Recover the amino acids of this structure.
């Protein structure tokens, strides 16, 4: 009989091939690039995204967002950019630090539509604007924003370095960039439990609720492939950020990264 640890080892070995590629895509059979597949995936799950997001994280993601936004509370930005805004959860959380204005951008029209409806219902349209926008080709002039945030979005970039450089370009010198992203925990038994949940339980629940199996199989693969920890901090530095830091959350399941534009 297979033990949980043996199942974990077999899963790790079999997925090593899948995640060794430079680019992990949601579907892989459409003939589209990663960016287009990511947009299609989020369009497909946009109607159930908020429900699934909080269900699958057991609500922990709300606390993670609160901690990440807290890094900006000492100097609330006049104009905040929320990259890969999705349905606007991170932008809404950012209202607690009283920024002047928040602009959210995303490549999924389905997610933006859901987000705009939610923001309108919450009467936040005077504070938050959601626009179609590509993080790797941001359509704003240099030095536009006073701070930038992104939650669970950078691992979906088709070209990570290009995206980070674009974000640096549109930030004013001295502005902070806050990133919330999943990590790969290393300590026993958190690593084993986390891996089993991500690879077996999460995809099943995601498929049942969203009707898109690929979306929640892509999630663990994209996390596995993402250059987390010091590797990501180095990519931030190469993109023009200083004072780079990482703060692990919930036993290393997620991390808050931060940097300041030179």
């Amino acid at each position: 009989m297979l033990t949980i640890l043996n199942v974990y080892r077999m899963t790790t070995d079999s997925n090593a091939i899948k995640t060794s590629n430079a680019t992990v895509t949601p579907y892989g059979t459409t003939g589209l690039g990663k960016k287009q597949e990511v947009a299609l995936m989020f369009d497909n799950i946009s109607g159930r995204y908020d429900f699934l997001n909080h269900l699958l994280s057991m609500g922990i993601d709300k606390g993670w967002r609160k901690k990440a936004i807290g890094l900006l509370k000492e100097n609330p930005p006049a104009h905040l950019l929320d990259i890969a805004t999705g349905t606007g959860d991170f932008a809404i959380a950012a209202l607690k630090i009283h920024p002047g204005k928040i602009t959210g951008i995303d490549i999924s029209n389905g997610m933006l539509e859901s987000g705009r409806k939610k923001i309108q219902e919450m009467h936040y349209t005077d504070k938050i604007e959601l626009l179609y926008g590509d993080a790797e080709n941001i359509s704003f002039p240099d030095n536009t924003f006073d701070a930038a945030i992104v939650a669970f979005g950078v691992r979906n970039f088709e070209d990570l370095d290009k995206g980070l450089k674009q974000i640096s370009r549109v930030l004013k010198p001295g502005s902070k960039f806050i990133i919330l992203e999943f990590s790969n925990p290393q300590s026993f038994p958190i690593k084993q439990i986390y891996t089993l949940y991500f690879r077996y339980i999460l995809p099943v629940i995601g498929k049942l609720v969203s009707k898109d199996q690929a979306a929640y199989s892509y999630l663990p693969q994209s996390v596995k492939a993402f250059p987390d920890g010091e590797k990501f901090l180095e990519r931030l530095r190469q993109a023009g950020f200083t004072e780079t830091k990482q703060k692990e959350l919930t036993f290393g399941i997620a991390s808050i990264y931060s940097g300041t534009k030179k």
